[in-house]
Amino acid sequence: MHKQLYAEIWLLDEARAIPLSDFCHASGLLESLVTEMVIEGVLVPHGDAAHAWLFSGACLARAQRALQLQRELELNWAAVALLMPLLDELRELRRQQQMWLGLT
Asked: Of 43, 80, 83, 103, which has the maximum CB count within 10 A?
């Protein structure tokens, strides 16, 4: 007997998005946790209701960063939601600085 192995590869960007169930599968997060992250403002999917939510690749990366931040610093999701824009801005400023200095 041979077991078949397969992998699903999704290329996600801002132009392509996936529904909540696929997002949970791709991120390894429970739907209840993703819902909590959306309610607290950590994630901002397209769509008004959970059944219509669509998540981009940026949301997937953001969820992983948020989860790491929450676990390492033992923060609640409201605190993570407050910190994420600041960290995004810091990342962007560092990127601009490296471009200005000709490092990238």
From this structure: 43
> Distance (Å, rounded) from C-alpha 57 to C-alpha 39?
19
- pTM for this entry: 0.77
Dihedral (CA of 55, 46, 66, 85) sign: positive
Burial class (CB in 10 A: 0-12, 13-18, 19+), 69: middle
Asked if pLDDT for residue 16 goes beyond 90, the answer is no
Predicted confidence (pLDDT) per residue in 35-85, tens digit:
999 999 999 999 989 899 999 988 999 999 999 999 999 999 999 999 999
Both structure tokens of 20:
């909540």
How far apart are the C-alpha atoms of 70 and 68, rounded to whole Å?
5
